């Protein structure tokens, strides 16, 4: 048998992997790079891979001189709220889809699929009017309600996949052992879906953290703005202070990336379980 | 006294009629095995007894209480699942004691009953393990232990041994038989394995296509099968069936019956003789299986299926040789054109 | 005996309740989802459809009411709509093509174990977690010739004469958001395809290898047929999402320069949000919905065919 330290195939594979990593990380790197570049060097050293001097001034001014912390807090409230309520509602619905056969199931699934199909922008105007009627315009609660509804269908299918991966025997055994269906869900099934719950929470958090257009439409006062909307105002307000914007962007990246890194393994697993079935 | 009465039980899944008018009575303390090919409805019936499937029509009665509308937890039953259904996030001790935990029993009682069950099944040293760290046989024991801790009125088993390898299966089979003798609880056991049915059961219920084919003690079913299905299902190797007009068949008129369409004879009830005119059937050996304890001949007599003969011990007759077969009249099973047994010259 | 009778008559009364419970129980779990989706999505959808036949222009509050098909006639004559439609096509196709093939490549690479795979998987999936508005801004930067590196690289490679901002060039500007979208969307395909790859039974490959199949043959004969149903459904969902995904374009070009980069969804948003012409925005949305539905039907038909093929 021939033994080479780096056979051609393996070398190419590692090269390809390295390219993917580079492509994925370079824009994020650039974001951080500009954030730590002193203002006076932004244009002169704009295209250099690393600035000659390094500064945290942009972070300091973003944190203390702008409304960044307000936006950040609002986004946290909205994203956590959305993630929590979506997961709660989707867990119940996913459980029903996974464990019951009932009349009307096909119709409900079809309706949920339709919600994934039409341009959400189509309902932006009616939602604006409805929210105005409910006096939920310019309110974080209104935003949480809307985001929760948007994310429930996908989260439901995700949770259904996780439930499908748990044998039905387990809760039947629990029901014979003395559980009601609900205690079986709480004591036996729920602990086993924790990874799935984590994945769904993280996925929805990230989605809510990113949403821009509905937030633009439904929020207009400064103290209610979520992060994307607030950042958008940086462009006009500060005559595009790039360094600050990128510093704010870097900070905004932290929660969603953290969440995502934690959950992405569960996500692949959850989808695998579902894929085996379908 | 009857433990379970099934009164015209029916089950429909939408348009599919899975169980048709099942009426049975199981006695208290009895070990009943439901046996049949896969898809015959035996597991569905067991799940209905457990309360996991609703009854479409008919009465399910435990003792003198109608339980159709009782939740599984209120039926005082325990069930051992094919997959064992151990709770993966609980250790063995908590798995065993979970039913008592749910009933909020005192810790001391829980401890006592758990260790009692663990003692019976030899699980004492495994109490702090999690199911993923157990072997197949150990998981099986935990599943049974969980049922024992419950001390239920009725034990239900849903193909509990089918995930075990052959040796372990025999071991656990004996274990279950001992358990039944020790506890004396009514047990209902579902399997598709006729050996399990024959060895464990006080009474066997043979099911096919959603209906009960025959109910009786193992030996009763073996000696007097009511129809072709039961005759062919129980016994290994299977009973031979020969059409009345098979040219290879040469029965003296004393043994024949004008309404018999099919003759059945078990492989172990055949005597090998010379292929002369005294032989009841003549054919050529196609395949021989020598098991040491027995020798099994597959004989080609011109029909689609080979005629199987089992003789005890080692028989050196070789492939290609022509042999004759002889049967005792009382071992011959006769079936009419509907496949029902004709029992006139039998003593059962 | 008396006892038995009482209990059985008691159960007789309980029976309809039990039936009822079996019917009702799943809906207890489903009702929050159903109510929420109905109120926030389905009702507005119906209302939205009705807007297309009305004049609802918040900037012009005096002409309101039902206008029949007037909005659709306007749509037919709207040159910007046709431009946006063409752009939608290229935007969706361009994004999807590269997202899919690069995502498939990544999934295949990640499907084989190597040292540091867990870390690599976390890193390459990261773009999916970057909020769209942020990646839009970020890529707008990368394309900016004063502070971004890409124009300089392109110039250095001789692809561009001198460093220019492609986002300012009406002929090329759409490719800016497309590149950003590719970057953003590769992880989605990689995740779903990786999940599908991991559910293909190993022994199939082993059997194929024993039968003498080359790597390429087992890819074509086993991997592709197994992935096909997942591919069909993911491609369909992604097409719809991409076609509806206006954020990147809105952030990076705002539809400009000279309205050259509007896709229908960004045009809808501008019409609703900037011009507050809800009636016409709904008309545009219906046009997009009809196109997407037709597309989804086609894919679902094809998927049925594919699934049968296995």
Automatic annotation (TrEMBL), chain A:
InterPro entries registered for this protein in UniProt: BP-dep_ABC_trans_perm (IPR050901), MetI-like (IPR000515), MetI-like_sf (IPR035906)
Residues annotated as domain ABC transmembrane type-1: 72-263
Membrane topology: Multi-pass membrane protein
Parts of the chain that traverse the membrane: 12-32, 53-71, 77-97, 106-128, 140-159, 196-219, 239-263
Gene3D superfamilies reported for this sequence: MetI-like
PROSITE patterns named among the record's database cross-references: ABC_TM1 (PS50928)
Source species, domain of life: Bacteria
SUPFAM superfamilies named in the record: MetI-like
PANTHER family recorded: INNER MEMBRANE ABC TRANSPORTER PERMEASE PROTEIN YCJP, MALTOSE TRANSPORT SYSTEM PERMEASE-RELATED
Protein name, as recorded: Carbohydrate ABC transporter permease
From TrEMBL, chain B:
ABC transporter domain location: 4-234
Pfam family, one: ABC_tran
Molecular function terms from GO: ATP binding
Name of the featured protein: Sn-glycerol-3-phosphate ABC transporter ATP-binding protein UgpC
Domain of life: Bacteria
Parts of the chain that traverse the membrane: none
Organism: Maritalea mediterranea
Gene: ugpC
UniProt keywords, alphabetically: ATP-binding, Nucleotide-binding, Transport
From TrEMBL, chain C:
InterPro entries tied to this protein: MetI-like, MetI-like_sf
Domain named ABC transmembrane type-1: residues: 85-301
Pfam families hit by this protein: BPD_transp_1 (PF00528)
Location in the cell: Cell membrane
Membrane topology qualifier: Multi-pass membrane protein
UniProt keyword terms in alphabetical order: Cell membrane, Membrane, Transmembrane, Transmembrane helix, Transport
Transmembrane residue ranges: 27-53, 89-110, 122-143, 172-197, 218-243, 278-300
The keyword Electron transport is annotated on this UniProt entry: no
CDD domains: TM_PBP2 (cd06261)
Entry similarity comment: Belongs to the binding-protein-dependent transport system permease family.
Name listed for the protein in its UniProt record: Sugar ABC transporter permease
UniProt organism field: Maritalea mediterranea
